[in-house]
Specification:
Layout: H1 2-21, H2 26-34, E1 38-41, H3 45-49, E2 57-58, E3 79-83, H4 87-98, E4 104-109, H5 110-115
Parallel strand pairs: 1-2, 1-3, 3-4
Length: 118
């Protein structure tokens, strides 16, 4: 009985890790990007240099709180954030929303966005 519960726990853990790898809404992100949303890459400078979306501004997630002024005064303008897997961009989305930004989309991971680029 304990082994069955252990196996179930491992399966649930694996599923939660897989869902973390696919965080974000790539379709909605591309729609917002095409409508003129600000595009923020919240990865590291090295990750950004390895490839990024055209027009994306690099603001690593750990610097975002101190660099909010770089996003301008219009907190209603759509913002799309992305990272490698969607985890850091989820943190960025939460931080921006907590700071009054009203239309923030977690685009998920860079590779995921590129794989569905219209």
């Amino acid at each position: 009985m304990i082994k069955a519960h252990y196996n179930l726990l491992l399966a649930l853990l694996a599923l939660s890790m897989l869902s973390a790898c696919s965080l974000g809404d790539t379709s909605l992100a591309w729609n917002k990007i095409h409508e003129g949303a600000q595009l923020i890459d919240v990865r590291t400078a090295g990750e950004y240099q390895d490839g990024h979306l055209p027009g994306a501004k690099l603001i690593p997630v750990d610097e975002l709180a101190s660099r909010l002024d770089e996003l301008g005064d219009d907190k209603t303008r759509p913002v799309v954030v992305y990272c490698k897997s969607g985890v850091r961009s989820s943190r960025a989305q939460k931080l921006l929303t907590e700071n009054g930004f009203t239309d923030v989309v977690n685009g998920g991971g860079y590779a995921s966005l590129m794989s569905v680029k219209p």
